[in-house]
Specification:
This protein is of the alpha/beta class. The chain folds into 3 domains: 373 residues, Alpha-Beta Barrel (TIM Barrel), CATH 3.20.20.80; 60 residues, Oligo-1,6-glucosidase, domain 2; 72 residues, Sandwich (Immunoglobulin-like). The protein is built from 14 helices and 20 strands. Helix 5 runs parallel beside helix 6 and helix 11 runs parallel beside helix 14. The radius of gyration is 24 Å and the shape is globular. Bound molecules: 1-deoxynojirimycin and magnesium ion. The site of magnesium ion has 6 residues, from loops.
Length: 553
């Protein structure tokens, strides 16, 4: 798959790649399997770097590949400086980074500082040594409430369902203290007041930076600091990541001190290293605090991901996002999917898969025309839908079992990618008929990379074209604002100027074709649904659920 390069060199490189990078998220278990065990691995990723270079992205973000019992897909880390044997070795990570760099791709690794695995040596030792252990202060251990301490220390509920506390067992099997875990019981939360925790993470950052990583995606960046005394929430509801209210376990002011220290550490390294925050805050303004000039560089824009397919709503949201990030001088980011949410081709479908795919194509061109950085999730460039029929007993998401199957259907977006061939594993692994850790649907042959390659109607070729134009057109990429155009109801339209002319992006979010005047649009450069008839009467027909890019000189 390491074909010769087709992605053009960037014609307009901003002085800082962090202003507008397109980052491709690799979920390592599901990307490519080199050894046929059914589980993706680092050598698999390495063998497909040419594909990513040809797709035209600037960087990969790789979800955790560290030593882990995989209670939460690797977001339960037992050793932050080692690679899980299922994925390879630190030597493989080294080689992967080196190969990526040779192809002009940067590599962002995932850092998980809010919690570790219950198999982390610190936690094991803290359990073993009992209440007197000095290591207990690195976590949140507390006696229970009630006469025999049989009630959890406070009323917090885990994001994966059930209480956010688990009781330990003391010597001789007697019930002991409780420990806090905002996620599964296998993911004890660190206590970030502990200097040992702070020092350890600074050392872990250095370990990966020294190995050549270009930066970090910071998991649950808003969760590290808890309100002093761990006060009750006062209501017994399931924690939501994207809440409207300030809660004692998220977005506490103290967290910013940590990121200031990380920022100065990153700046000791050459080559514009990056940190991007997974920070679900209640408003854009609160999210923007994570990317102030002396903190992290970017934060995910989850409100864009969650937005309905509606021109008015999207315009509001884009305007607010740009303004909030501009105020702190940070680039805005855009994302449609990741490994935690229903794939957008299905999210947008509202019962009609064809509509979902139309909108997914249109949304991709919208996202890639906006100022700032875009994050793509593996497989969206193939138009993959959510897999909804995974048998219960084959699901891995811990939230599935902890919430009686009601929540946590995250396996459906994590199914191994189809690369080639007519039957599973579709080139994911080397062996015909070989295993995959989650079953792939029978109908995925036409969605494979091989099937879409060279087909101008395919989602893959649409992404390749869009990314190629984005790399060469000076009106795209970095920027602070867009100029809105009012063309017709249901049409989102904006212009981006450059010294070499303007690019106009029109998005028809309605389910009907809409005729708009062509004055000011220019010539059609790319469309998610065509043909777009440019009529003699100076009007253009924008197809239902479509986006088009137009160029004027
Ligand atoms: C956010 C990650 O994206 C998700 O996959 C994980 O379960 C939680 N953080 C806990 O680490
Ligand atoms: Mg493997």
């Amino acid at each position: 798959m390491t074909a010769p390069t087709t992605a053009p060199a960037r014609a307009h490189t901003p002085p800082d790649w962090r202003q507008d990078a397109v980052v491709y998220q690799v979920y390592p278990r599901s990307f490519a399997d080199s050894d046929g065990d059914g589980c993706g691995d680092l050598a698999g990723i390495r063998s497909r770097l040419g594909y990513l270079r040809d797709l035209g992205v600037d960087a990969l973000w790789i979800s955790p590949f560290y030593t882990s019992p995989q209670a939460d897909g690797g977001y339960d880390v037992a050793d932050y400086r080692a690679v899980d044997p299922a994925y390879g070795t630190v030597g493989d990570a080294d080689a992967l980074i080196a190969d990526a760099h040779a192809l002009g791709l940067r590599v962002i690794v995932d850092i998980v500082p809010n919690h570790c695995s219950d198999q982390h040596p610190w936690f094991l030792q803290a359990l073993r040594e009992g209440t007197a252990s000095p290591l207990r202060s690195r976590f949140h251990f507390r006696p229970g409430r009630g006469p025999d301490g049989e009630e959890p220390p406070n009323d917090w509920v885990s994001l994966f369902g059930g209480p956010a506390w688990t009781r330990t067992t003391g010597p001789g099997g007697t019930p002991g203290e409780w420990y806090l875990h905002l996620f599964s019981p296998q993911q004890p939360d660190f206590n970030w007041d502990s200097p040992a925790v702070q020092d350890e993470f600074r050392a872990i950052l250095r370990f990966w930076l020294d190995l050549g990583a270009d930066g970090f995606r910071v998991d649950v960046a808003h969760g590290l600091v808890k309100a002093p005394g761990l006060p009750d929430l006062g209501r017994h509801e399931q924690l939501g990541l994207l809440g409207e209210k300030l809660v004692p376990y998220f977005d506490q002011d103290g967290v910013h001190e940590i990121y200031r220290s990380w920022r100065s550490l990153l700046e000791e390294y050459p080559g514009q290293r990056i940190a991007v925050a997974e920070a679900w805050a209640k408003s854009f303004e609160r999210t923007a605090r994570y990317v102030r000039p002396d903190e992290l560089h970017q934060a995910f824009n989850f409100k864009f991901l969650n937005a309905p397919w509606d021109a008015t709503r999207l315009r509001e949201l884009i305007t607010t996002s740009l303004a909030a990030m501009h105020a702190v001088d940070a680039p805005t980011t855009w994302t449609l999917s990741n490994h935690d949410v229903v794939r957008h081709a299905s999210r947008y479908a509202e019962g009609d898969p064809a509509r979902g795919l139309r909108r997914a194509r249109a949304a991709a061109l919208l996202m890639l025309a906006l100022p700032g950085s875009a994050y793509l999730y593996q497989g969206e460039e193939l138009g993959l839908p959510e897999v909804t029929d995974i048998p219960d007993d084959m699901r891995h998401d811990p939230a599935f079992r902890r919430s009686d199957g009601g929540n946590g259907l995250r396996d459906g977006c994590r199914v191994p990618l189809p690369w080639s061939g007519r039957t599973a594993p579709y080139g994911f692994g080397p062996l015909p008929g070989g295993p995959t850790w989650l079953p792939q649907p029978d109908q995925w042959a036409d969605l494979s990379v091989e099937a879409q390659n060279g087909d101008p109607r395919s989602v893959l070729e649409l992404y390749r074209s869009a990314l190629r134009i984005r790399r060469t057109d000076p009106a795209l990429g970095a920027g602070r604002s867009v100029e809105w155009l009012d063309l017709a109801p249901g049409i989102l339209a904006f212009r981006r100027d450059s010294e070499q002319g303007a690019l106009v992006c029109t998005v028809n979010t309605t389910g009907e074709p809409v005729t708009v005047p062509t004055g000011g649009l220019g010539t059609l450069l790319l469309t998610s649904a065509g043909p777009q008839s440019c009529r003699e009467d100076a009007t253009a027909l924008l197809q239902a659920d479509s986006t088009s890019w137009w160029r004027t000189d």
